[in-house]
Amino acid sequence: MIRILSILLLSVLMIGCKSAAGKESKDKTSSGTSQDDLNFYFKATGNEPFWGIKIGNDQIVFTSLITGKESITFPAVDAIRAMDANVRMYKVSNETTSATITIQQLDCQDSMSGAISPYSVKVEIKNNSELEAKKLSGCGKFITDYRLHDIWVLEELNGYKVFATDFQKEFPRLEINSAENRFSGFGGCNSITGQIFYEKDVLRFTKVVSTLVACAPGNKEGDFLKALQSTTNYSIENNRLTLSNPSGKLAVFKKVD
After folding, report:
1. pLDDT category, 32, cuts 50, 70, 90?
2. Residue spans of beta strands (DSSP E) within the chain
């Protein structure tokens, strides 16, 4: 009898472990992207009292016990943008609660961990039956589009298909690390590295550094780097990454990884 009970207990434990492992695999993609990273593009937290907020295309979720509820969900709204600074404001409400969320691009240090985030966040939230709003402050960051995390090889530049003769060794390529907001690759003549700046619907390649190999006449590396550093927007479709700015399409890459 004891042996049978032991076998049954072991079976239950194994099933439980398998279920937990299965849930974890569903919660994350093969690249380590969590489900939250797919549903939300901005996250912020604050202390004293503890609170958190997640902003997505479909909903905005506020988490804290200060409102008497563990979490409150608002319908997503478009941000109100400031004209003279990188500041955006979200005014949200539901049947019971109203809130104003202000996000400013400004280095922000967590009051407990000391970690630095690139955005300062302020939240004013109140029950609709109350007159006074609770005021909170904290730090946050945009979650870079996980689809950028790949190796991309150039196919088009400034509206024209590129050919092997346009570059000294091989076609330019980018290897983007969306988790660390950086990239590396090849410009067509020199190796390149740099950082990416990402916000919702915004992508910029910054602090671009290249080696100093002399390029052959006719090499279009200079045109490629200029297009890269002029980028403000992007789209991904059919395994193609298209970089653009308000003037038009700058470059098209094919996913190769």
Report:
1. low
2. 40-46, 51-56, 59-63, 71-75, 80-81, 87-93, 97-109, 116-127, 134-142, 151-157, 160-161, 173-177, 182-186, 191-199, 202-210, 233-237, 240-245, 248-255
| Token pair belonging to 71 | 């979490």
Q: Tell me how crowded residue 144 is: count the other CB atoms within 10 A of its CB.
A: 21
Residue 174 and residue 127: Cα distance in Å, rounded?
48
- pLDDT given at position 19: 45
C-alpha to C-alpha distance for 209 and 66, rounded to whole angstroms: 47
Gap between the Cα atoms of 56 and 43, Å rounded: 9
State the first-to-last Cα distance of the chain, in angstroms, to the nearest integer. 55
Residue type, 126: K
How far apart are the C-alpha atoms of 182 and 204, rounded to whole Å?
11
Residue 69's pLDDT band (cuts 50, 70, 90): confident
Distance CA 233, CA 220 (A): 22
How does DSSP classify residue 172? -
Convert the pLDDT of each residue in 89-119 to its tens digit. Answer: 999 999 999 999 999 999 999 999 999 999 9
